[in-house]
Design brief:
With 301 residues, this protein is α/β, with parallel strands linked by helices. 41% of the residues lie in helices and 17% in strands. The chain has an eight-stranded parallel beta barrel with strand order 1-2-3-4-7-8-9-10, surrounded by five helices. A two-stranded antiparallel ribbon has the order 5-6. Helix 7 links the parallel strand 9 and strand 10. It is globular. The model has no long low-confidence stretch (mean pLDDT 96).
């Protein structure tokens, strides 16, 4: 099974002070996709520089030629399907059809209350996500959409001329629960996971792989439940949140071992974070680049 290697570039650098160079370097290194997080602020980066995902990806689309671009992930926490659809259609156009939307239900981080609302319960997040994704799908595939929902509405919302990619840009849906997995099966062209968060701090790599195997099995079950063939759905693992954490970037051999074991599980894309000094994503830049250029050939060798 072929494997793709992608990266996440967190939006922490000013565009003209190293930000632009990171996206150009990702293209030069041959990554399949370069993603960024779509947050207003995030975890330990809360009190430092953090730029918006949509403007950053728009600039990256204009600066690059071949690199696919995307979010890992956008959520309903501070987005509305109508305005998001317009941004996405524009991003897809500017990039020449190189954009993938990673999307999830969101969590209880800083985004959850930044607009002044109370953080939603897990149930409400799931309910909103179940309405958000189908409406976004409709907005990106139809010229005019009217919808009155429990949480989101649209009145003759237009997205003309539509996406460059047809019938719309691909969705990579992050989910592990039954409802989210059914959404992924019904609307997704890819599925995203970070593993089992309960195992991050004290679990073992073997326990993590077993948990991932269970998630993949539940995804297959979700396809059965909606009566859809799994087909060529991409399965994406965002690294950094399993028991191995960032140790997979300590050496080329460490990454090749990790990637090979997860390819055997059925993953088709592995995503690694671009190094950020003095952070949870600190790593040797030379090793990171060696992985980018040599890992896939060593896996297939």
């Amino acid at each position: 099974m072929s494997l793709r290697l992608s990266t996440v570039i967190l939006p922490v650098r000013r565009w003209h002070e190293g930000g632009r160079d990171q996206w150009l370097r990702a293209e030069q290194l041959g990554f399949h996709t370069a993603y960024t997080y779509d947050h207003l602020s995030w975890r330990s980066f809360r009190d430092g520089p953090w730029f918006g995902a949509v403007p950053t990806l728009t600039a990256a689309a204009a600066a690059t030629e071949r690199l696919r671009l995307g979010t890992l992930v956008t959520s309903p926490n501070f987005r509305h399907p109508v305005t998001l659809a317009k941004d996405l259609m524009s991003l897809d156009d500017i990039s020449g059809g190189r954009f993938t939307l990673g999307i999830g239900a969101g969590g209880n981080g800083f985004d959850a209350t930044a607009l002044g609302q109370e953080a939603w319960s897990p149930r409400e997040r799931a309910d909103r996500f179940a309405e958000f994704v189908p409406l976004l799908d409709q907005l990106l595939t139809e010229g005019s959409v009217s919808h009155e929902g429990t949480f989101y509405s649209a009145e003759e919302a237009r997205n003309i001329p539509g996406c460059v990619q047809r019938p719309r840009l691909p969705f990579a849906i992050a989910a592990t629960g039954p409802r989210g997995l059914r959404l992924a099966a019904r609307h997704g062209q890819a599925w995203v996971t970070t593993g089992d968060p309960k195992l991050f701090a004290e679990g073992t790599p073997e326990q993590s792989r077993e948990a991932l195997r269970g998630q993949l099995a539940r995804l297959d079950k979700a396809f059965e439940e909606i009566g859809r063939e799994p087909g060529p759905m991409e399965k994406i693992l965002l690294t950094g949140f399993t028991p191995e954490a960032n140790s997979v970037l300590e050496s080329l051999d460490a990454f090749v071992d990790f990637a090979g074991r997860h390819r055997e599980l059925g993953f088709t894309e592995i995503v690694i974070h671009a190094p950020i000094p003095d952070s949870d994503f600190a790593a040797d830049e030379a090793v990171f680049e060696k992985i980018a250029t040599d890992a896939l050939a060593q896996l297939d060798g």
